[in-house]
Amino acid sequence: MADLERIPEIVAYYRALDERAALRHYFRHEDEECGLWYSEAVPDRGKLIVLKQAELTSAGQFHRYSWEHLEDERGGLTDPAIDPELDPWKPSRPKSSNGRGTGERVGYLPCKGGCAVRRR
């Protein structure tokens, strides 16, 4: 759980990154319980910082985290930077509605108003 006194500072940091970042990196990961994880990350000071994260559990439950929803009783937005060389995350490209990858900045992971992550 985040330090309650630092929550406004943490929210402001992630929100500022989300609003200013043009280059987005997308990752996916399947955990040992067959749950699917999706992350959207942006570069900041030489590191990849996760801005949005979604989990679809093997039981079909959906959980999402961002600066708008940092944590809940189940978990929260990861705070360590992603290291693509060491972490089990695989790069993933956002998909357009026709199923083709796009290079555009898109709300691929859940944000206010809904979710675009679907299990295929």
Q: Please state roughly what percent of the residues sit in beta strands, choosing from under 5%, 5-15%, 15-25%, 25-35%, 35-45% or over 45%.
A: 25-35%
Q: In total, how many beta strands?
A: 5
Provide the gyration radius in Å. Answer: 14 Å
Q: What is the first-to-last residue Cα distance?
A: 32 Å
One letter per element, helices H and strands E, the order comes to HEEEEE
Unreliable residue runs? 96-120
The coarse overall form would be: globular
Strand adjacency order, main sheet: 4-3-2-1-5
Helix content: 10-25%
Average pLDDT rating: 78
Going by helix content, strand content and strand pairing, the class is alpha+beta
List the total number of helices. 1
Largest sheet: 5 strands, antiparallel
3D structure, described in words:
By secondary structure, the chain is an alpha+beta fold. About 10% of the residues lie in helices and about 25% in strands. The protein has one helix and five strands; from the N terminus they run αβββββ. The chain has one helix at about 5-20, and strands at about 25-30, 35-45, 45-55, 60-65, 90. It has a five-stranded antiparallel β-sheet with strand order 4-3-2-1-5. β2 (about 35-45) and β3 (about 45-55) form a beta hairpin. The longest helix has 14 residues, at about 5-20. The radius of gyration is 14 Å and the shape is globular. The chain starts with 6 loop residues before the first helix and ends in a 29-residue tail after the last strand.
